[in-house]
Design brief:
Distance between the termini: 19 Å
Strand content: 5-15%
CATH topology: 434 Repressor (Amino-terminal Domain)
Strand order of the largest sheet: 1-2
Radius of gyration: 12 Å
Number of helices: 5
Shape: globular
Oligomer: single chain
CATH architecture: Orthogonal Bundle
Length: 72
């Protein structure tokens, strides 16, 4: 069984707080597919550093406001 990622995120919360932004709209804004946004939100995929900064930029927050570390 795959081990859960130690990286947490608030992408869904931020999308909902920003006018119920759709996954498709966020994907288009950061240059990835909707499936990638879904995987990020579910914690099944950790975005590249560039994508992480792009997500933070869309929501006008710092990267640390979007992503966190729950590891040991």
């Amino acid at each position: 069984m795959a081990r859960p990622s130690p990286i947490t995120n608030r992408v869904r919360i931020l999308r909902e707080a920003h006018g119920q932004m759709s996954q498709a709209a966020l994907a288009a804004a950061i240059g990835v597919t909707r499936q990638t946004v879904i995987a990020i939100e579910l914690g099944k995929y950790s975005p590249s550093l560039e994508s992480a900064f792009r997500i933070a930029h869309v929501f006008q927050v710092g990267v640390e406001d979007v992503f966190g570390w729950a590891g040991d």
